[in-house]
Amino acid sequence: MSISLPQVIQMAANLANGPAPSAPIINPDLAGSKPVVICHTRDVDPDVFKVMSRYSVVETYAHDIHANLDPALLGFGYLFVDMRNDVERLWFQKFVQGNLAFHSVLYKWTWESDMGVSFESEFSEFPPKQARKQDWDKLLLTPPIGAPTPCLSFLGIVAKCGLA
């Protein structure tokens, strides 16, 4: 069976133009699709656990149960890790830190530092209850806007007065 010349020329032209453009890649991590590891350096109110259990499975890290387990096998939506405990901190560094399969956030006092670890969000108050898990996760993962420092505010006032 022979191929006529126009078809051969058409095929060569298609190859020269390259493959058809593919659809743009959409980030598969929509709000709420990844599990969230919530590190905390202060006690968590039991009401927060009740709110979160409406959205997904809530687990608290327990070293005697979860030691040396890959967090992907735990099947949680939210996992609490107490950063005051050195064993739990070590587990977090070994399995979660730098792992893109999880979101990691820090619940801390406002005056505390970040302990040299980068988190997606650091906050001192949990977001209010939302109708949908996606909305609550979006609030949880959005870093809060910090208040301006009094020193900078004072300098701004002085600068405005000096220019007038």
Task: Provide structural commentary.
Helix content is 37%, strand content 13%. 16% of the residues are buried. The chain has a domain at 36-141. The longest helix has 14 residues, at 150-163. With 164 residues, the chain is α/β, with parallel strands linked by helices. Residues 19-28 have low confidence and may be disordered. It has a 5-stranded parallel beta sheet with strand order 2-3-1-4-5, with helices on both faces.
Order of helices and strands: HEHEHEHEEHH
Radius of gyration, in Å, reads 25 Å
Number of helices: 6
Strand order of the largest sheet: 2-3-1-4-5
Number of strands: 5
The percent range for helix content is: 25-40%
**Poorly predicted regions:** 19-28
Distance between the termini: 90 Å
Globular, elongated, flat, extended or rod-shaped: what is the shape? extended
Strand content: 5-15%
Residue-averaged pLDDT:
79
Oligomer classification: single chain
Structural class: alpha/beta
The biggest sheet amounts to: 5 strands, parallel
Tell me the layout of helices and strands.
Elements: H1 5-17, E1 36-40, H2 46-55, E2 58-60, H3 63-66, E3 78-82, H4 86-96, E4 103-107, E5 121-123, H5 133-141, H6 150-163
Parallel strand pairs: 1-3, 1-4, 2-3, 4-5
Give the gist of this structure:
This protein has helices spanning 5-17, 46-55, 63-66, 86-96, 133-141, 150-163; strands spanning 36-40, 58-60, 78-82, 103-107, 121-123. It has 164 residues and is α/β, with parallel strands linked by helices.
